[in-house]
Design goal:
By secondary structure, this protein is mainly alpha-helical. About 65% of the residues lie in helices and about 10% in strands.
Length: about 100
């Protein structure tokens, strides 16, 4: 499909004969798009987060400090990420993860 696709072109595909299949594909695509939006929002959120740090009083090693806002954001984002991992529509993202991060 492109800009020149017409209604006649679509009708010639006889998609109306596969209404249930098409509906299922569209539903899955909408849910995947929703998950992708959430993942992008998480990425933007954490790209902007800044951790504070302090020296350990006795050892002098640098330690991370987290503000209450950061902890709350982390907890909220963990819930959203867990929901994504438990949905039936996450196969696309699992496929990407397996192929992008295993090499």
């Amino acid at each position: 499909m492109d800009e020149s696709t017409t209604l006649a072109d679509l009708l010639s595909l006889n998609l109306h004969n596969f209404e249930d299949d098409v509906r299922g594909i569209v539903d899955k695509a909408v849910k995947e798009m929703s998950m992708e939006k959430v993942l992008k929002e998480l990425d933007v959120t954490w790209a902007q987060m800044e951790f504070e740090h302090d020296a350990h009083p006795r050892r002098g090693t640098t330690m991370l400090k987290a503000s209450e806002e950061l902890i709350e954001t982390l907890e909220d984002n963990q819930v959203m990420a867990k929901e994504i991992t438990q949905t039936l529509y996450n196969q696309y993202f699992l496929f990407l993860h397996d192929h992008l991060y295993t090499w």
